[in-house]
Amino acid sequence: xxxxxxxxxxxxxxxxxxxxxxxxxxxxxxxxxxxxxxxxxxxxxxxxxxxxxxxxxxxxxxxxxxxxxxxxxxxxxxxxxxxxxxxxxxxxxxxxxxxxxxxxxxxxxxxxxxxxxxxxxxxxxxxxxxxxxxxxxxxxxxxxxxxxxxxxxxxxxxxxxxxxxxxxxxxxxxxxxxxxxxxxxxxxxxxxxxxxxxxxxxxxxxxxxxxxxxxxxxxxxxxxxxxxxxxxxxxxxxxxxxxxxxxxxxxxxxxxxxxxxxxxxxxxxxxxxxxxxxxxxxxxxxxxxxxxxxxxxxxxxxxxxxxxxxxxxxxxxxxxxxxxxxxxxxxxxxxxxxxxxxxxxxxxxxxxxxxxxxxxxxxxxxxxxxxxxxxxxxxxxxxxxxxxxxxxxxxxxxxxxxxxxxxxxxxxxxxxxxxxxxxxxxxxxxxx
Length: 432
Hints:
Oligomer: single chain
Helix content: 40-55%
Number of strands: 18
Strand order of the largest sheet: 10-13-9-18
Shape: globular
């Protein structure tokens, strides 16, 4: 297998009518990977069907969780009466990016944009001065004589000390690229940075006299929570009013029976008919609900979209969304934004990478002193069963056996060394 991979080819196995596997050799690895990705995508789409819209004039129910004593959550059930309303039930339609193969950010254009913002704005410092200092110090690949040259595909990494002007470049570049007709997605470390940058870029657009749509996206379950916290911490009424205009909404579904509206627990796609064991329905007011207004703008008309690292990496858009003309009940934020963006700018890439590793890391136990059956043992038993049944070709059985034994040998040797004090797990390479 390793030899085949080094040559860029892999075997495939097809089930014959007699129950044996037939080896198909010499298949390019990229063809196998493409087929596997297509199969995974098709399977994922099948699990993300679009639920039917709840019908007017009928009663539906949904679960609600209330904060009880001692921090416990108490389960409740709300009843909703769906009024008759003529609301078009179209999904979000994501307008795809123009996908340019390359872009150049002209130094002179960036500095001119910064100067125009300075002349018309009132932000207390010189964007033009800080940006000019930062651009003068740029070195390395992609830093042409007249501008930053960016090619589609690879990551264009910009490294500089804190406070030298990376955030200023991000802010000015977003306005400059958006004016040129590009859709820019900016990823910042947290929710507070998201809202602050949106406020700054909107102010810059006003200073430039440009009609620019700038939206923020974050977890839809936390909108009211964030609005309340920012209002409580707001140094003045203006910030509180801005926050509520950005994040505030109310649920349009009338509650017939049960607890009051619980912000963040709206049954947007979780309505059910009492007595039905299966099936769920979506709220018919999603297409006009204020809660989902930022996502509607981001899907179609927004020129700058700002979100935080965590929401981009593990968040979802949990309402009907059509990408490439295919409606789905739920899509990931990554798929949603990458389909929309011409340029993605990641602020604090180290924090972004650390978050991705922390959230995606999983543990697989390969060796243990105990009686529990581990995954490798289960795989080896399955191999033995298939061999006894005569359904595995000889060369595949031998190759699989070799890999299993190798996987079993290395962790067992390491565990033995740790148990017998030959290796310190906190210093495995002996640096101390």
